[in-house]
Amino acid sequence: MSVPETILVATSDAAFGELLRTGLEESGKYGVTLVRSGGEVLSLSSTRAFDLAILDAELNDRPFVPLAQGLMNACPRMKVMVVPPENNLRHARLTGLRPHGYILSPFFLPDLLEGVETILATGENLLAEPLLVQTALGADGLNWAEDPLRAAQVLARLLAQVDASAALIGFEGKLWAFAGQIPEAAAQEIARALGEWRQDGARLDLARYARLHSTGGEHLIYTTALLDQLALALVYTRRAPLTRARAQAAHLREQLSRLAVPAAPPPTAGFDEPEGEEDAAPPFDLAALLAGMPSPDPGGEPPLAWTREEDLLGEDAISFPWERPARAGQEGLDWRKLLETPDDTPERTCSYVLLPALPEQHLTGALAEQISLCVRQVCQNFGWRLAALAVRPGQVQFSVVAGPDGACNNVASVVRQRTSERIFNRFPHLRAGSGDFWAPGSLELPGASSVPVESLRAFIAQTRQSQGYPASNSLE
Questions:
Q1: For 294-337, what is each residue's pLDDT tens digit?
Q2: Cα(205)–Cα(253) distance, rounded to whole angstroms?
Q3: Neighbour tally for 15: CB within 10 Å
Q4: Residue 50 near residue 6 (C-beta atoms within 8 A)
Q5: Of 76, 166, 388, 421, which is most buried with the most CB atoms under 10 A?
């Protein structure tokens, strides 16, 4: 049996560190040691030999570049991968450092494992350029405009680059794809309202404030044209600065437009096609692809009530106030300063409890590890900060910081669905007839403190009674 290669992971983010540790160890190829500070890195590296070190540049107890460079000089055979601040390879905190590779978040676990394997396989040789671990968007030839599932994956990754809580793509009032911290009903609601966006064929950017019927929350929704026939909408909190929303919408529009264009095939060697006689590929007809989509929820919720930007800022719906000529008496007015007011809306933190569908099912061992890993991955993918997590034999408790304006509304349902899928894939014998590993309902409490014992007992008793089991309020 081959000896697993050893990896040192150093990050002050406990959830991220656990995600790396579990993902690497589950491959069966690596033994992982997880530390939380630069001091621990120096202490361990002086007494143990590691094959690879993964260093989070957010470590703040030591100057990062001297720490990483000193490690590489002291242990020439050890490879070093860096998680850059803000996913920025040119960040000032990395000046002068040339590691063996970088890890950009978010990433797929298979991409990370492939990158680690590649770096470790190079032996004493250095790669020509540092290896970059990131999930390629569109590299497989399937662009997002041909597949709504692919579009949702692309949106989820691009959301990590902006402040928006959600993003969606709509076509003539129909939802093509969405990702982020709003329920699907809210995304459908916004998509229906995007039908007004195209007026007389105009391509306009619209910033509007709206109260969503499905969540009751008020949001800034910034909409921009995408590939002529589509609308891209970014959903922000009501107090988000318009300038930031505008810039971020332009950035995502550029990224999506680039990813939707298939790469040109390489030229065929040895043959010169006569000019004008090559077989041209038929143009991509997105309208035909989307025309068959059913209208979402016809006759359902009332139309979304928009507050138009022009109603808030004046008659000119296209230009922003800072782009207009100054009026008399307003020469000294700084619109940018007024609009860039920090969003002081407090983040919303909620705590949740889920119970297994079968009272006799205990959440221990490998099952507990899979649940813990999956909850952490879900929170990372959706941009929620996991404040606490406890997997106990009889229940799972976790606290999530998900932002204001009702962004916590769908946390429990998302975690329930994703963990059920993972459990049934890894442990098919646990598959329940309902397709849900968890008992109906969940306990939700505001704040990140531990759930009161009496509230937990009452929730367990009520849930088991509703399932037809004898009344029980045992915490185990």
A1: 554 444 555 555 554 444 443 333 344 444 454 444 444 343 44
A2: 11
A3: 19
A4: yes
A5: 166
**CB–CB of 264/278 below 8 Å?**
no
> Strand, coil or helix: what is 404?
coil
E strand intervals along 292-364: 305-308, 349-354
Which of 55, 53, 6, 54 is closest to 29 using CA atoms?
Answer: 6
Structure token pair of residue 433: 């007839």
Q: Is the pLDDT of residue 426 over 80?
A: yes
Burial classification of residue 254, based on how many CB atoms lie within 10 Å of its CB (0-12 exposed, 13-18 middle, 19 or more buried) = exposed
Tallying the residues shown for the chain, one arrives at 476
pLDDT at residue 335, as a whole number: 35
Query: Could you tell me which residues come within 8 angstroms of residue 309 by beta carbon, excluding any fewer than 6 positions away?
Result: 206, 207, 208, 209, 242, 317
**Side-chain half-sphere of 410: how many Cα atoms within 13 Å?**
20
What gap in Å lies between CA 175 and CA 177, rounded to an integer?
6
Residue (of 101, 37, 46, 89) closest to 71 by Cα position: 46
Alpha-carbon distance of 169 to 177, in angstroms, equals 5
Taking the chain, what is the end-to-end CA distance rounded to the nearest angstrom? 39
* DSSP state letters, 278-332: S-PPPPP-HHHHHHTSPPSSTT-SPPPEEEEHHHHH-S-SSS-GGGSPPPTT-TT
3-class state of residue 143 by DSSP: coil
Contact 190, 220 (CB under 8 A): no
- The encoded tokens of residue 431 equal 């598959």
Q: What percent of the chain has pLDDT over 70?
A: 70
Residue 399 half-sphere exposure toward CB, CA atoms < 13 A:
14
